[in-house]
Amino acid sequence: MTIQFSNHMPEIVANRRYLHQIPEIGLSEFKTSDFVAEQLSTMGYEVARGLGKTGVVATLRNGTSRRSVGIRADFDALPILEETGAEYTSTHPGVMHACGHDGHTAMLLGAARILAERKSFDGTVHLIFQPAEENFGGARIMMDDGLFNKFPCDAIFALHNDPSMPFGQFAFREGPIMASADECKITVVGRGGHGAEPQEAADPIVAGASIIMALQTVISRNIHPLQSAVITVGAFNSGIASNVIPERAEMKLTIRALDDNVRDELERRIRLIAEAQAASYGVSVEIDYERGYPPTINHKSETDYVRQLAMRFAGGEHVVDMPQPIMGSEDFAFMLQERPGTYFFLGTAKTENDPPLHHPKFDFNDDILPTGTAFWVELVEDYLSSK
Ligand SMILES: [Zn+2]
Ligand SMILES: [Zn+2]
Question: Which of 55, 90, 256, 304 keeps 20 to 30 A from 239, CA to CA?
Answer without folding.
Answer: 256
